Amino acid sequence: MSVAKGDLYMIDDLIRKIKEKKAPVVVGLDPNLSYVPESIQKKAFIEFGETLEGAAEAIWEYNKGIIDAVYDLIPAVKPQIAMYEQYGIPGLVCFERTISYCQSKGLSVIGDVKRGDIGSTSEAYAVAHLGHTKVGKNELTCFHEDFATVNPYLGSDGVRPFLNICRKEGKGIFILVKTSNPSSGEFQDRLVDGRPLYELVSEKVHEWADAMGRGEFGYSGIGAVVGATYPEQGAALRKIMPDSYILVPGYGAQGGKGEDLTGFFNEDGLGAIINSSRGIICAYQQDKYSDYGADRYAEASRAAVLDMIADINGALGRDA
Amino acid sequence: MSVAKGDLYMIDDLIRKIKEKKAPVVVGLDPNLSYVPESIQKKAFIEFGETLEGAAEAIWEYNKGIIDAVYDLIPAVKPQIAMYEQYGIPGLVCFERTISYCQSKGLSVIGDVKRGDIGSTSEAYAVAHLGHTKVGKNELTCFHEDFATVNPYLGSDGVRPFLNICRKEGKGIFILVKTSNPSSGEFQDRLVDGRPLYELVSEKVHEWADAMGRGEFGYSGIGAVVGATYPEQGAALRKIMPDSYILVPGYGAQGGKGEDLTGFFNEDGLGAIINSSRGIICAYQQDKYSDYGADRYAEASRAAVLDMIADINGALGRDA
User: Fold this and answer.
1) How far apart are alpha carbons B195 and B188 in whole angstroms?
2) Chain A partners of B116 at a C-beta cutoff of 8 Å?
3) A55 inside 8 A of chain B by CB
4) Of B35, B69, B70, B74, whose CA–CA distance to B55 is shortest?
5) Nearest residue in A to B197, CA atom
6) Exposed site from A16, A158, B35, B177, fewest CB < 10 Å?
7) Mean predicted confidence (pLDDT) in B148-155
8) pLDDT of residue A3
9) How many CB atoms are located within 10 Å of the residue A316 CB?
10) Which residues, 6+ apart, have CB-to-CB distance to A42 below 8 Å?
11) What are phi and psi for residue A30, nearest 5 degrees?
12) What are the percentages of helix, strand and coil residues in chain B, rounded to 5?
């Protein structure tokens, strides 16, 4: 099924930016106070004390520095809500503020929320992250990401409310298929009728993507998460879900390299977007970028983004 | 392995209250604005407008009415964070306020958050919901539930940070094993070496529970979620995880009845806690309790709690 141009605008918009910037990459904004340079922490603590508000302010300044330094190079960011949730309400205020700021800079925002529940509850999550909340006569937004990640363990009726909201709002989701962590195989790789569980999940993703229709570039707004740390599985899953974008975490700090990633892409050079979090936002703490020092942490992040783009484009055999 | 009395205090505390109140039940505080009587909504909207703040204020008043009406009858509540998250930051402020208020009334609080991610990220979720966040010299709390629900799809390294925080803080978790929704079987029931996936998950739960040790009543702080809508599976899983408490959603509005639930309990009469959400908090909207009317919604909830306790104790062959 094909849909009218523009109906899936968030995925089309994301792909347009990936092509323009020649950068199939996403920066994971997963801050932890231990990543934030001392000088930024100190300034925030003077104003707000060593409180959750102080931590959130420090993280906001840190995020803003990185966003300002890299937004022109990349199509999208992926804030991981857990890293904000650990600073309570002030942390979640910072999460929303970060999303708004990224969107004002023209970036697509993938909320890495990994939500998933039974139907009526998943609907509330979908509304919170991608939709509108009805209060009296008003339709209000809460966290207004462009995309969200979704956990499929509860089955179709936990995913369907996300599909409905995506259809209504022109937004997208990435469903966990094969995650990047070492023990992802414990349940995801178990063989069902001789095939790993993650393959069954990927078939469902394809079914949902197909029902949703394809946009301007031939892709659906319903994508999948497959870890960079599992390149062979990535190549196999690429074929099962041809119209789904694959969000690929695990590059950099978790061990994935550009050369491992070619199988995640389709022949059109599209179909995958590679995430790096710590590898970019903590670049200044790595030997390779240590010359920048903590005060120039944002410049270190920019250098790391440029290196990442070159690595991936090099592996794909094209110029950045 | 057995641990010193008191080390697992949250599970011991919960069981003590279940015994004292003769009520193996938990009330799900899963509010939606459509459940809140008009008069409460109106009052909140006059003060805060038809905003997220207004919605959160209405829900807080509604929750408070229910808690005040039922707290003496029950050991625990289970707020579902999605229902608060859909009202954004003000909704999450209401979530925390509800938790604090319930704890001040002596109730155990199970945060139904179904979080789960790769290791470092799960750690942030565990800190947010059960632990302490380090900011400078301070150790602060965010949502401070006594228990949380956890999604196991990412495997051991996604669960381990929760286990570590539970050990440190004396708290507990309930891991999703077999959920109550109609399509839970889509992935959870798939046969792996001839046995359903949820059984493999339950064996892991038993392993984790065993490593954690047992408290005063012989139970571990590591429990499981198994839906009331699957009584046969519940009875089988009961045997696989003898020292784990089972949190049983799906009673009432989702179709589960007291007579279906006996298999979820151990022979000591303990081992399960049955949740009802809409069946209690929206009792006034049901034919059975409609005489109370919207203004006496909290009394209707109290009547529904009493009926639920009698139904379950009746099925277990004991007096309330």
Assistant:
1) 10
2) 114, 151
3) yes
4) B35
5) A187
6) A16
7) 96
8) 45
9) 17
10) none
11) -115, 65
12) 55, 20, 30
Residues 6+ apart with CB under 8 A from B100: B144
Give the per-residue pLDDT at A142.
98
User: What local confidence, expressed as pLDDT, does residue B3 receive?
Assistant: 45
Cα A50 to chain centroid, rounded: 30
* Selection from B30, B80, B45, B95 nearest residue A138 by Cα: B45
Q: What per-residue confidence (pLDDT) applies to B256?
A: 78
Distance in angstroms (rounded) separating the CA atoms of residues A274 and A227: 9
Going from the C-alpha of A230 to that of each of A106, A181, A198, A255, the distances in angstroms are 31, 9, 12, 10
Chain-wide mean pLDDT for chain B? Answer: 95
Helix H or strand E segment including A23: none
Q: Is the pLDDT of residue A5 over 80?
A: no
E strand or H helix that includes residue A132? none
pLDDT of A4 above 50: no
Q: Is the pLDDT of residue A1 over 50?
A: no
First-to-last CA distance in chain A? 33
> What ipTM was predicted for this assembly?
0.96
**Residue B319 C-alpha, separation from nearest chain A C-alpha, in angstroms:** 33
Give the residue from B311, B279, B293, B300 showing the smallest Cα distance to B70: B300
Q: For residues B117-138, give the mean pLDDT.
A: 97
Taking an 8 Å cut-off on Cβ atoms, the answer to whether B121 and A184 are in contact is: no
Interface residue A253 vs chain B (CB under 8 A): no
Question: Looking at residue A99, what DSSP letter applies?
Answer: H
By residue count, chain A amounts to: 320
Amino acid at A276: S
Model confidence over B254-286: pLDDT tens digits?
787 899 899 999 999 999 999 999 999 999 999
- Residue A117 clears pLDDT 90, i.e. is over it: yes
Q: Which of B158, B199, B214 is nearest to B7 (CA)?
A: B214
Chain B residues near residue A179 by CB distance under 8 angstroms = 118, 153-154
Cβ contacts (< 8 Å) between A135 and chain B: which residues?
A: 33, 50-52, 54-55, 87
Q: Residues 65 to 124 of B: which have CB under 8 A from any A CB? A: 80, 82-83, 85-89, 91-93, 96, 114-119, 121-122, 124
CB-closest option in B91, B128, B180 to A85: B128
Ranges of H-type helices in chain B: 9-20, 38-48, 52-70, 81-85, 88-104, 119-130, 156-169, 185-188, 197-212, 231-240, 278-281, 297-315
- The whole-number average pLDDT for the span A57-81 is 98
Cross-chain CB nearest to B118 (options A136, A180, A191):
A180
Question: Which residue has tokens 């080390």?
Answer: B7
Rg, chain A, Cα only: 19
Tokens representing A225 are: 């998460």
Question: Which DSSP category does B176 fall into?
Answer: E
Contact yes or no for B83/A121 (Cβ under 8 A) = yes
Q: Summarize pLDDT for A277-294 with one digit per residue, the tens.
A: 999 999 999 999 999 999
pLDDT at B254: 76
Measured between CB atoms, which of B89, B91, B187 is closest to A96?
A: B89
The counts of H helices and E strands in chain A are: 12, 12
